[in-house]
Design brief:
single chain; 114 residues; mainly beta; seven-stranded mixed sheet; 11 strands
Length: 114
């Protein structure tokens, strides 16, 4: 069965950190770019970060630059999103996306609140 499964979300205080993971099964992430998106209540889904198939190139939306880091471990078929200095406006459901396969994960909730 082909799927992407995110984990690592939760409730964190402002200024805290979380590390999201996205594990692929049923297909190989190697050779495809990967992205993290997020969707806050009442807002459209937005691209947060992307990484090339080799991991050599990354890009971020301006609002998370310097705070979030996307990375991948092709041997583990996994992509990560390290999120530091979290803010209340980072609260959203976070999704990973396999660009070349057009596959989405089910999402993981991140809530930043005191």
């Amino acid at each position: 069965q082909v799927q992407l499964v995110e984990s690592g979300g939760g409730l964190v205080q402002p200024g805290g950190s979380l590390r999201l993971s996205c594990v692929a099964s049923g297909f190989n992430l190697r050779g495809t770019g990967m992205s993290w998106y997020r969707q806050a209540p009442g807002k459209e889904r937005e691209l947060v970060a992307g990484i090339s198939s080799s991991g050599g190139s990354t890009n971020y939306v301006d609002s998370v630059k310097g705070r979030f880091t996307i990375s991948r471990d092709n041997a583990k078929n996994t992509v990560y999103l390290q999120m530091n200095s979290l803010k209340s406006e980072d609260t959203a459901v976070y999704y990973c996306y396999a660009v070349g396969w057009n596959y989405w994960g089910q999402g993981t909730q991140v809530t930043v609140s005191s």
